[in-house]
TrEMBL record:
It comes from Flavimaribacter sediminis. Keywords: NADP, Oxidoreductase. Residues 24-343 form the Enoyl reductase (ER) domain. SMART domains: PKS_ER. The keyword Membrane does not apply. Gene3D superfamilies: Medium-chain alcohol dehydrogenases, catalytic domain, NAD(P)-binding Rossmann-like Domain. This is Zinc-binding dehydrogenase.
Length: 345
């Protein structure tokens, strides 16, 4: 414990939704958050208090603090959905059994948040972490790795031989690229920076195409002709995505799981839904948790930890920023990052 009843946190300045649709880009963090000392959260039955060791920053956190995510903000509550830390207290038998354990967790209580020295969450959503798993991997154990496994499962069940990913230099796509490499399903990566090509090829991508490059459209045609990808896993959901989908063969599925670009796409050939059995659908990890059994979730968690510890996966980190420096250092770090930016108390 802190020795006092308060803690340092990055707290939200607004309630509810903003009604804007700008996407996760942030130029001035002070519009949404402030650094403050606030009361250390209190636990109720079934909950644990966690001393945060490291918190991840995901695009969903940025959508959220801007009031553009699927959940309303709570003014005065700390931001941050996901972290790793040590359980320092708990109420109820399941929660008490976790005291002293290092756990990965997502915050499920609107008045708590992971960008703080302490966070409260139900014991039921805490995942005890193997000692040999790095904090960098454990801090991002849930959102991206489980989404990577779940979406890769879509590729496996569909029996595709290749898949296209947009925003492919994201941590999530790096995990899916490695899964494609390990399971013989060809990853085709779309990025917007030439400097990211070589690293994604090293991780296992077969093709990396750069949007905005003069030969982008030509290369898309060539790669689609050669690989016949029928699955587009898309976090950008802009016109490039719609054009890729239009160029894909009969039976193509467009799975939208993010909206990094606020631009709404136009689908020029609606007849493809009639004559080419094309489909558009969404993926949200929250839904996956509702649709899978605890046994399936546990199997996925064990696989996630094994993949990180064995080196098949790695969370790539560009910067680790102290909470107290975040108001000035976070935005510049996010702007130049080619990998994750983490927060530590
Ligand atoms: N639906 C779900 O359940 C679920 C679960 C997990 C993650 N996600 C989504 O998955 C995506 C990746 O998450 P992450 O944590 O892996 O991301 P990340 O590591 O933080 O990386 C973000 C990536 O997005 C790219 N990007 C940002 N704005 C873009 C734009 N306007 N156009 C094209 N690319 C853009 C960046 O490209 P540059 O390198 O060029 O800047 C960067 O590579 C996010 O959209 C996130 O919300 C969804």
């Amino acid at each position: 414990m802190t020795g006092s009843n308060d803690m340092f946190a990055l707290i939200q300045k607004h309630d509810g939704f903003s009604g804007t649709r700008e996407g996760p880009r942030i130029d001035d963090l002070g519009l949404y958050l402030e650094a403050a000392r606030v009361p250390t959260p209190q636990i109720e039955d079934g909950q644990v208090l966690i001393k945060v060791a490291m918190a991840s920053i995901n695009p969903s956190d940025l959508h959220f603090i801007k009031g553009e995510y699927g959940q309303p903000r709570v003014k005065g509550a700390p931001a941050g959905f996901e972290a790793v830390g040590e359980v320092v207290s708990g109420k109820g038998s399941r929660a008490e059994a976790l005291i002293g354990k290092r756990v990965a967790f997502t915050v499920q209580i609107p008045t708590s948040g992971a960008w703080a020295e302490y966070a409260v969450t139900p014991a039921a959503v805490c995942i005890p972490v193997r000692d040999d798993m790095r904090d960098e991997d454990a801090a991002g154990h849930i959102v991206n790795p489980l989404t990577a496994l779940a979406m890769f499962d879509i590729a496996r069940k569909a029996g595709v031989s290749s898949f296209i990913m947009t925003a492919a230099n994201s941590q999530l796509c790096k995990l899916m690229t490695a899964l494609g490499r390990d399971h013989g399903i060809t990853p085709i990566c779309i990025v917007r920076k030439e400097s990211q090509v070589a690293h994604l090829m090293e991780l296992g991508a077969k093709h990396v195409l750069v949007t905005g490059s003069p030969d982008f459209s030509e290369k898309v045609k060539e790669v689609i002709k050669a690989e016949k990808p029928r699955l587009l896993l898309d976090a950008v959901a802009n016109q490039v995505s719609a054009d890729l989908f239009t160029a894909m063969p009969t039976g193509a599925r467009w799975v939208v799981y993010g909206k990094l670009d606020p631009e709404p796409p136009v689908i020029p050939e609606m007849g493809q839904f009639v004559f080419m059995q094309k489909h558009i659908e969404g993926f949200w990890l929250t839904r996956w948790f509702m649709d899978t059994t605890p046994e399936q979730q546990m199997q996925a968690i064990v696989e996630v930890q094994e993949r990180f510890v064995s080196g098949k996966w790695q969370t790539e980190v560009d910067a680790v920023i102290r909470l107290e420096d975040a108001m000035s250092e976070l935005v510049p770090a996010l702007k130049k990052a080619n990998a994750k930016v983490m927060l530590v108390p």
